[in-house]
Amino acid sequence: MNKVCLIGRLTKDSDVRYTQSNNTMVVNFNLAVNRRFASENGERDTDFITIVAWSKTAEFVNKYFKKGQQVGIVGRIQTRNWDDDQGIKHYATEVVAEEVYFADSKKDGNDVFNEYGDMFAGNSNNDSPDFEVASGDDLPF
Question: pLDDT exceeding 90 applies to what percent of the chain?
Answer without folding.
Answer: 67
